[in-house]
UniProtKB/TrEMBL annotation, chain A:
This is LLM class flavin-dependent oxidoreductase. Keywords: Monooxygenase, Oxidoreductase. GO terms for molecular function: monooxygenase activity; oxidoreductase activity, acting on paired donors, with incorporation or reduction of molecular oxygen. One of its GO terms (cellular component) is cytosol. Residues 1-295 form the Luciferase-like domain. Coiled coil: none annotated. The lineage of its organism: Bacteria, Bacillati, Actinomycetota, Actinomycetes, Micromonosporales. It holds the Pfam family Bac_luciferase. It comes from Micromonospora orduensis. It comes from the Bacteria. NCBIfam families: LLM_CE1758_fam (TIGR04036).
UniProtKB/TrEMBL annotation, chain B:
PANTHER family: FMN REDUCTASE (NADPH). Pfam families: FMN_red. Residues 6-155 form the NADPH-dependent FMN reductase-like domain. It comes from Micromonospora orduensis. InterPro entries: CE1759_FMN_reduct, Flavoprotein-like_sf, FMN_Rdtase-like_dom, NAD(P)H-dep_FMN_reductase. This is NADPH-dependent FMN reductase. GO terms for molecular function: oxidoreductase activity.
Amino acid sequence: MQFGVFTVGDVTVDPTTGREPTEHERIKAMVTIALKAEEVGLDVFAAGEHHNPPFVPSSPTTMLGHIAARTERLLLSTATTLITTNDPVKIAEDYAMLQHLSDGRVDLMMGRGNTGPVYPWFGKDIRAGIPLAIENYDLLHRLWREDVVDWKGKYRTPLQSFTSTPRPLDGVPPFVWHGSIRSPEIAEQAAYYGDGFFANHIFWPREHTQRMVGLYRERYAHYGHGTADQAIVGLGGQVFMRRNSQDAVREFRPYFDNAPVYGHGPSLEDFTRETPLTVGSPQQVIDRTLGFREYVGDYQRQLFLVDHAGLPLKTVLEQLDLLGEEVVPVLRKEFEALRPAHVPQAPTHASLVAAAGGGKDSTVHAVDDVTGKAPEATR
Amino acid sequence: MTHRTLAVVSAGLSQPSSTRLLADQLAGATRDELARRGHEVELRVVDLREYAHDVVNNMLTGFPPTALREAIDAVTGADGIIAVTPIFNASYNGLFKSFFDVLDAGSLVDRPVLIGATGGTARHSLALEHAVRPMFSYLRAVVVPTAVFAAPEDWSDGTTDGALRGRIRRAAGELADQVERRPPTSGPADPFALTTDFLQMLGRGGDDTTVS
């Protein structure tokens, strides 16, 4: 099982000090969090993509490429990549490049975005959100698997004899998760391709997650990728920890009460009961997280949100220490002991290469204009 | 003999509440009318006052807390709805509107609704026609022709034989007609149900008219 953190990269006032970080500070803090995640033994760092204040991560592959250069082992992912408003050709190119630079330490999570106005900024219409996600991903899927693509669709200009470069590392595209809160169509999409499904599982009741994962598993089996319990499931989660649970509640409450999204609404106690949010001791986080398995089955990836609502970097790094030292080692052991042998681990580049029968260089060499031959053949 | 459910939504704020009193009388009259026609009726009363905080939380977080979700399911899964609000500033009160604002789109389509209201003077009575009825029309519910307004004098007139009693009986009969005309509902719609499959979605290649 993989464990990690995901961040939306919000610039939010610390309600306890009134101080708001600069964009520069927040961007650097995201990098520090990623480096710390590797240091404390987590597996995954995933960054969101947003194109409006108060969010900073508009250019995910720039940030992930920088982190790739400064880490050895950490898997770099997204939460989420906007499959609706980005050009699938550019996603294919950017993430294949990142895949090469990181030596295969990359996967992606597709999402539709959470802000209506983003669509027209990129020439799209939110009312076509689902159809855009379907068409764009289908093209992206082909661009990574077919060297030369002829394509015509509704939402971008047609492609003739197009080769997306670089080709995926070892001829194996990055693994893809599809993220959704409550759109059954996206669970269906993930199931159709045999891709992973990631349930947001923060800020929403667990019933949403349970229903969506259940649907995804059922359809995964329907499309013949394996049994329902072999489908690849990831979950979010939101935690705040101190050794003493009362300290955690006391310290987190002002951040909770003023948080974007749910602040000034339900009480911390209500929200803890109604959603997967856990504020307490490391042991409470362990117990609650193990409980997720009871309503989604054995799953492959757990990402925690630990850095939003204006929490200072120092506090976030302390959260990562607790995750790395006390929580994740126990979760790893417990989940592994519970997992039946036929339920797979989350795919990695190495496992995908092995499944493909070994890696192969998939470079597409340019054709020589004069001789009509590829450079390889003229030598 | 069929089993029918009636949801009774009252947005009265005081306790006891004349709005709730009107709602109960409308519910009782409709139940009696349906029983007279051989239907077994189950009443589900939703006193919005009890869900006021939950309704606001739903607006802010995008999902109903458990207790509110059960109330919403009771309303959207009912065969008929009796909806009664006090009139504030020439319209429904904010709690009434907020409750119907957090329902999923489409959840009241073709649902029979009887509307009622209370107010400080009879001069507020047309708020039912220019505010409450259009809201349900927008939701594509079927609002029965008789809307029942109760002013203070209607209560002092005596509830057994006054004009109010007659309007309640007429409205209840109209709601019973509409309920009886439809098969029993199968409960609230399931928002997680898959209504298409992938090849259909892909083949359609993007239908701009589908608002998700």
